[in-house]
Amino acid sequence: MMPMGSMMGWDGGGWGMGFGPVSMLIWWIVVIVVLVAAIRWLGLTAGIGGAPTRRGDQALEILRERYARGEIGKEEFDAKRQDLGG
Fold first, then answer.
1. CA atoms within 13 A on the CB side of 74
2. Domain locations in the chain?
3. 18-35 confidence digits (pLDDT tens)
């Protein structure tokens, strides 16, 4: 005999046996996606050699490359480097 209030032997009071592992998997996927988004939002990326760099460091590296190629002079390089805090 089936319990009172249930339909086809399922009481509907929870996720059921089939949804527990699926909901847990979805939960961990959401957690990982949020962590990755937070890291990217903070501007941390893996630089050469795997060392984390900030966007300011990347801007300073671009400035150095422009100076090395002769696109900007020493005075402009020094002024922009001071602006970037490097």
1. 0
2. 19-84
3. 578 888 999 999 999 999
Check: pTM over 0.90? Answer yes or no.
no
Give the model confidence (pLDDT) of 46-76 as tens digits.
Answer: 554 555 556 668 888 999 999 999 999 999 9
* Axis crossing angle, helix 55-69 with helix 74-84, rounded to the nearest 10: 180
The letter for the amino acid at 13 is G
On whether the CB atoms of residues 47 and 53 are closer than 8 A, the answer is yes
Query: Which residue type sits at 34?
Result: V
Residue 4: alpha-carbon gap to chain centroid: 49
Residues 25 and 35: their CA atoms lie apart, in Å, by: 16
Percent of the chain at pLDDT > 70 equals 62
